[in-house]
């Protein structure tokens, strides 16, 4: 059986949520490889050296909002400065517990964000993305 | 010293001219009294006194009674008498006028001082009021953001738990484990619902009204999307019947309206009647220039008449089996009140429940934010 996506990245400071996302995606064959990073900075460090032909380039990035040091929105600001060819290949989804209307609006207004999802990530939510 | 000498000279002079000091001193004393007491009415008895004095002494001299000395003149002519009278009256009148104006001036000054004091006091009170208003707003905002971040921090681990439960459910489990995991899920959801109720309550109570155009269809679709997974495994799927008649722009507070509809509809789903074959919830919306009539009707278990007065109370739950926090309908009532609306409950046990809400159209309210022209 095929995997829906080759590489999917999950950015979350919560280790359990990373584990959940990884397990759900692997079990449902949503992703072949899940790149779990614990902070927005780590995610940027991972993305920076890549180019469009890199093997490790994720097609989907699930991004948490509420993270220490650098929030999801801070990440989006930095993400803007990454080269075009990387940004073209990546689709960003917000994955958060936040119910704040303002967070949702800010995410939806951002040009890079495709969807706004509430945690926890489960089979149904992934099915909706397919 | 100079004034003393001058006074003596004047007295001598007056004496040389004619008559006694006393009558001229009466004029001086009278004037002084008028100015001191600042009462113009005193000029009347003073003038009368001079006239009576002149008249009686003049008369005594005239009839030859020589025990009194009134004037150097042998007798006082009527002309002199009248001139004296008129001059005294004029002197008193001028002094009276002076007294009157001085009094007015004094009063005005006192009034001004008083007004000034009051104005300053009012300014101070206004400032204090503004400051406490500002403080209140700030503490409301702080409290709201506190509730917000606390609820976020509480919900984050709950959603992790739900996620892990979801992982468990993806594997085959024996019935015992399946049951336990399902119980765990119910409890976590209940706790999550409770936290969200508290959040709704706080936001309804504290946040400013934010009026915008309401698109009922969109809003209801969102709500049903969120409630889709609410049914427990032993419950039937609830049929949703929508009848929205709008066309006239309706303005209200979106988040509060959403809280109201969300609570009523989720109640209809939660308290469905297991004995009926086709559980449904029907939502009717009719918008007019003045307001919106919203009807949420179901054929659920209903609310007994003796409990109908209590269901809007805080933390009131009809039975121990109630899955909710006991906050839902309380928040609904509070939110309806914030929107200046009214809510009515009609229900019969075993037949169903109907909530009718009337909300004013706040299209012309001063709270409506002008949409930016794009």
Keywords:
heterodimer; A: 130 residues; alpha/beta; Rossmann fold; five-stranded parallel β-sheet; 6 helices; 39% helix; globular; B: 374 residues; alpha+beta; Heat Shock Protein 90; 2 domains; five-stranded mixed β-sheet; two-stranded antiparallel sheet; 7 strands; 58% helix; 12% strand; disordered C terminus
Q: What can be said about this structure in brief?
A:
The complex is a heterodimer of chains A (about 130) and B (about 375). Chain A has six helices and five strands; from the N terminus they run βαβαβααβαβα.
Summarize the structure in words:
- The complex is a heterodimer of chains A (130) and B (374).
- Chain A has helices at residues 15-27, 40-47, 72-79, 84-89, 101-109, 123-129, and strands at 5-11, 31-37, 60-63, 91-96, 113-118.
- By secondary structure, chain A is α/β, with parallel strands linked by helices.
- The radius of gyration of chain A is 14 Å and the shape is globular.
- The model of chain A has no long low-confidence stretch (mean pLDDT 89).
- Chain B is an alpha+beta fold and 374 residues long.
- Chain B folds into two domains: 2-120, no CATH class; 209-374, 2-Layer Sandwich (Heat Shock Protein 90).
- Chain B has helices at 2-17, 21-37, 43-62, 78-169, 175-206, 216-227, 254-270, 328-338, and strands spanning 211-213, 239-245, 251-253, 280-287, 291-298, 342-348, 352-360.
- In chain B, the strands form two sheets. In chain B, strands 2-4-5-7-6 form a five-stranded mixed beta sheet, with helices on one face. A two-stranded antiparallel ribbon of chain B has the order 1-3.
- In chain B, strand 4 and strand 5 form a beta hairpin.
């Amino acid at each position: 059986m095929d995997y829906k996506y080759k590489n999917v990245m999950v950015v979350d400071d919560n280790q359990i949520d990373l584990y959940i996302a990884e397990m759900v995606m692997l079990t449902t064959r949503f992703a072949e490889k899940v790149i779990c990073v614990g902070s927005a900075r780590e995610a940027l460090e991972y993305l920076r050296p890549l180019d469009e032909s890199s093997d490790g380039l994720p097609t989907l990035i699930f991004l948490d909002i509420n993270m220490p040091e650098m929030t999801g929105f801070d990440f989006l600001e930095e993400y803007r400065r990454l080269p075009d060819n990387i940004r073209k290949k990546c689709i960003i989804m917000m994955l958060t517990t936040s119910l704040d209307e303002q967070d949702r609006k800010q995410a939806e207004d951002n040009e890079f964000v495709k969807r706004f999802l509430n945690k926890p990530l489960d089979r149904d939510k992934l099915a909706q993305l397919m | 010293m100079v004034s003393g000498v001058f006074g003596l000279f004047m007295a001598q002079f007056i004496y040389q001219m004619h008559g006694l000091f006393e009558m001229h001193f009466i004029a001086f004393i009278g004037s002084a009294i008028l100015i001191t007491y600042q009462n113009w009415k005193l000029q009347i008895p003073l003038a009368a006194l001079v006239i009576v004095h002149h008249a009686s002494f003049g008369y005594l001299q005239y009839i030859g009674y020589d025990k009194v000395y009134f004037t150097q003149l042998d007798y006082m002519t009527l002309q002199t008498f009248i001139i004296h009278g008129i001059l005294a009256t004029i002197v008193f009148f001028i002094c009276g006028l002076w007294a009157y104006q001085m009094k007015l001036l004094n009063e005005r000054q006192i009034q001004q001082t008083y007004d000034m004091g009051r104005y300053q006091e009012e300014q101070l009170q206004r400032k204090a009021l503004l400051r406490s208003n500002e403080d209140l707003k700030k503490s409301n905002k702080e409290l709201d953001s506190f509730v917000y971040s606390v609820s976020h921090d509480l919900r984050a681990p709950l959603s992790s738990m739900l996620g892990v439960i979801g992982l468990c459910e993806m594997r085959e489990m024996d019935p015992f484990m399946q049951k336990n995991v399902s119980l765990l899920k119910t409890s976590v959801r209940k706790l999550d619902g409770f936290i969200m109720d508290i959040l709704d309550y706080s936001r309804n109570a504290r946040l400013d009204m934010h009026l915008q155009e309401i698109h009922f269809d969109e809003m209801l679709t969102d709500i049903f999307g969120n409630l889709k997974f609410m049914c427990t495994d032993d419950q039937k799927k609830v049929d949703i019947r929508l009848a929205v008649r709008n066309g006239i722009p309706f303005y209200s507070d979106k988040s509060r309206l959403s809280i109201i509809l969300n609570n009523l509809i989720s109640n209809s789903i939660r308290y469905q009647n297991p004995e009926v074959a086709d559980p449904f919830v029907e939502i009717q919306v009719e918008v007019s220039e003045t307001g919106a009539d919203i009807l949420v009707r179901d054929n659920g278990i209903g609310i007994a008449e003796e409990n109908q007065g209590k269901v809007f109370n805080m933390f009131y739950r009809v039975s121990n089996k109630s899955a909710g926090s006991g906050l839902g309908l309380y928040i609904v009532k509070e939110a309806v009140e914030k929107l200046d609306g009214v809510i009515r409950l009609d229900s019969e046990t075993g037949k169903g429940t109907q909530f009718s809400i009337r909300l004013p159209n706040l299209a012309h309210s001063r709270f409506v934010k002008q949409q930016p022209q794009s």
